[in-house]
């Protein structure tokens, strides 16, 4: 990642007469990355960025974020379609721009090219899964608590347990018979994280609540048993009625 501070240094070196190729070697970056930065030298020169800042949020705060997500989605789809083969992927700049337009986003080739180069290499499958989980959490966070509670109340615990058992049966069947086990396992793990985990959490919360509800009852019973007085009249009457030898 290139910070705004470093981008300013690149612009200054270029204006002092240093060639693009020399700057690229100095910072160990591609010449296309340096050229992309120099195209925006006027905006970079006018920024007062804190040290360590890597994005020019004032310039396009939302577009770069959207392009980055599109890039990761594109890579993930390609990997799944090609059986997760470790091959060099085709150019992604044009395709991410096209994908962005189909989703109503203002995306330029410069935006996409900059993000591709800043990533340096494609994210791993685990990183993609992490991004997906993060997006799922953001989506779940937008759901109102009232609506979520109402949806949970409509499900019984026995229905959820039955559904979880059926899902385990499906997983075993797919793992046994699917021709590409690597793709199948990753897809099932993704579904586990994004869908099934929600229902398991409901069961955990309900079980925890049942335990909490039972705890005061047990404590009260023990306290009552320990404080109950012993009826001494019973022992006295027993002694009086006992015949003497």
Q: Count of helices?
A: 12
Oligomer: single chain
What pattern of helices and strands is seen along the backbone?
HHHHHHHHHHHH
- The total strand number stands at 0
Q: Which class do the helix and strand fractions yield?
A: mainly alpha
Give the overall silhouette.
elongated
Helix content: over 70%
- Cα(first) to Cα(last) distance is 102 Å
User: How much of the sequence is in beta strands?
Assistant: under 5%
- Characterize the biggest β-sheet: none
Count of all domains: 3
What's the average pLDDT? 69
Radius of gyration: 32 Å
Low-confidence stretches: 49-61, 85-90
Organism: Lynx pardinus (Iberian lynx)
Region (Disordered): 104-157, 217-245
Biased composition (Polar residues): 229-245
Pfam families: CENP-B_N (PF04218)
Key attributes of the depicted protein:
mainly alpha, 3 domains, 73% helix
Short description:
With 245 residues, the chain is mainly alpha-helical.
Topology (SSEs and partners):
Blueprint lengths: L3 H12 L4 H8 L3 H9 L1 H5 L17 H19 L11 H10 L6 H11 L5 H18 L2 H9 L3 H21 L3 H47 L4 H10 L4
Protein name: HTH psq-type domain-containing protein
GO molecular function: DNA binding
Organism: Lynx pardinus
Task: Describe this entry's structure for a reader.
- The chain is mainly alpha-helical.
- It has helices spanning 4-15, 20-27, 31-39, 41-45, 63-81, 93-102, 109-119, 125-142, 145-153, 157-177, 181-227, 232-241.
- The protein has 3 domains: 4-45; 63-123; 145-226.
- Helix 6 crosses helix 7 (109-119) and helix 10 packs antiparallel against helix 11.
- InterPro entries: Homeodomain-like_sf, HTH_Psq.
- Residues 104-157, 217-245 are annotated as: Disordered.
């Amino acid at each position: 990642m290139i910070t705004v501070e470093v981008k300013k240094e690149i612009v200054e070196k270029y204006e002092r007469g240093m060639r693009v190729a020399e700057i690229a070697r100095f910072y160990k970056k591609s010449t296309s990355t340096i050229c992309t930065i120099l195209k925006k030298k006027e905006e970079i020169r006018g920024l007062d960025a804190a040290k360590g800042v890597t994005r020019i949020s004032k310039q396009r705060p939302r577009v770069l974020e959207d392009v980055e997500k599109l890039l990761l989605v594109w890579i993930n789809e390609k990997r799944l379609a090609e059986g997760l083969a470790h091959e060099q992927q085709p150019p992604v700049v044009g395709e991410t721009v096209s994908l962005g337009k189909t989703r109503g986003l203002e995306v330029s080739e410069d935006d996409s090219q900059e993000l591709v180069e800043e990533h340096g290499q494609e994210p791993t499958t685990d990183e993609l899964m992490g991004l997906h989980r993060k997006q799922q959490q953001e989506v779940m966070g937008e759901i109102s608590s009232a609506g979520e509670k109402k949806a949970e109340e409509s499900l019984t615990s026995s229905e959820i347990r039955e559904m979880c058992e059926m899902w385990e049966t499906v997983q075993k069947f797919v793992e046994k018979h699917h021709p590409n086990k690597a793709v199948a396992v990753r897809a099932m793990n993704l579904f586990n994280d994004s869908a099934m985990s929600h229902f398991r959490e409901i069961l955990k919360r309900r079980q925890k609540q049942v335990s909490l509800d039972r705890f005061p009852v047990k404590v009260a019973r023990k306290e009552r048993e320990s404080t109950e007085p012993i009826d001494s009249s019973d022992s006295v009457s027993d002694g009086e009625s006992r015949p003497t030898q």
